[in-house]
Amino acid sequence: MLDAAGGRTPSTHPALRHCVALLRLHLASPSLAAAKQLHARALRGGVPLSHPLLAKHLLFHLAALRAPPLRYAVAVLTRVLPDPDPFSLNTVIRIAASSPRPRLALALHARRLAPPDTHTYPPLLQACARLLSLRDGERIHAEAAKNGLATLVFVKNSLVHLYGACGLFESAHRVFDEIPLRERNPVSWNSMLNGFAANGRPNEVLTVFREMMDVDFAPDGFTMVSVLTACAEIGALALGRRVHAYLAKIGLVDNSHVGNALIDLYAKCGSVDDARRFFEEMGTEQTVVSWTSLIVGLAVNGFGKQALELFGVMERKKLVPTEITMVGVLYACSHCGLVNDGFMYFDRMKEEYGITPRIEHLGCMVDLLGRAGKVEEAYDYIVNMPLEPNAVVWRTLLGACAMHKKLELGEAAWARLVELDPGHSGDYVLLSNLYAAVGRWADVHVLRKTMAKDGVRKNPGRSLVELRNSVYEFVMGDRSHPESEQIYKILAEIAERLRREGYIPRTSNVLADIEEEEKETALNYHSERLAIAFALLKSLPGTPIRIVKNLRVCGDCHTVIKLISKIYDREIIVRDRSRFHHFKSGSCSCKDYW
């Protein structure tokens, strides 16, 4: 075919046809080198730089790469400006959305180079989710609705993911409910499950999963990772084991992501032996993530030395640790009081593995020093650290000050927290604990009045216990349970048997200016004691008791649970806000250092 000037039309150019065919052929195993060679061959064969068909197939090939080259893709797109076809523009937007520069996707869309179509909005919403930009996401949502494209299932899937990523799980669920049941696909279900899981809503994850199973929708690996994460969050070991059995039945147990989630589940439920056993069963499927999951799991369960030994085995196998691996290693040192080892591993992390310390690593070092009573050194470390300390770092210091009664440094940490994260109830509690520990009750009362005036509410202590496939929750002094009368009888029996063992309540842990007898009563009704009493009432003798508490276990409860484990011959595993305590035969895995 000839054009008006007597030459070939570009679409029938032999070099173009040849290169397009080869680009399609290489899609099964795309290669950047091959793409560039074919691009060069087309240009040498006389195909214009601005030919839209060449750009379209070249961009499609680039998008198929594991790490698409954004700069090259944009360069190809600019050759067909100002009128790129929607497919080419959407392809570059998709590449940008998944690149380290997702904002470029929004910038390209803002130029209105081509009319949006059904494939425009999902990558734009992905970019908003990665940027955690709710404002941009809501704007794109409104635009999609205006153009009549917001009802498409893949747009709604992207909206569910966006709102979940931005913490608006209720909005995500509202959009999810708008998707007709027959149109929901694996991405729909997984986006909703992940949205709840990422926002700490484990019960909702399990509810949605039950809905999914009720309509006979087959789960995949991503589904089951969210479900296992939810089981781990609430410490539902029995449910997690049933999920594990189901995974083996449907053939997903060999999925590496699922395997790592199983290690995490068992570790977070305090079943370290199961975590280690499954890790060993993975064999050649073990990844650095698997090793990291077990190292972190051992560390938070109080088995810091075993965690460090496992890290040594990992190094001997020539596996390269990640940033998260090193957080686990430093955490193990912190919770075992291994200050010198902690600094040794920190230096090796930088020098041997080239890992630039992040704020999480620096926070571990502050915690390492603070727990060891080196509070002044911890403060100096914060002042001189290479990154700007965030609220978590200052909160760590304030906790160390409360533990070691360092009033002046505690007030300095509090002053920074007021600037960085005002209104955080935990900070008020830590400062109140510090004032009470040094006997400054007037300041305690002033602080609590300030909390009331500013509307700051203290999170009440809550403890969960799993029995016979159900999870029960208790709060301090709770009498809402239908078997409260029997529970309090068990508490009274425990108190009597403790006295016979020579137990004397540590009333200093009740940080209120009240009489000693009232303090003893308050201690006796802490939520974890109620949960343990219920477990003793309802479970078989010798059965391990597993408790999950949202706050740090107080020193008196720690002493009491050690004695209960001895008196009743029970292993009691308590997961508090930051770690596990394995109580057995009158001792704890933390060796009283936590």
Automatic annotation (TrEMBL):
The keyword Transit peptide applies. It comes from Urochloa decumbens. PPR repeats lie at residues 185-219, 255-285, 287-321. PROSITE patterns: PPR (PS51375). Keywords: Repeat, Transit peptide. Gene3D superfamilies: Tetratricopeptide repeat domain. One of its GO terms (biological process) is chloroplast RNA processing. InterPro entries: DYW_dom, E2_motif, E_motif, PPR_At4g14850-like_plant, PPR_rpt, TPR-like_helical_dom_sf. Residues 502-594 form the DYW domain. This is DYW domain-containing protein.
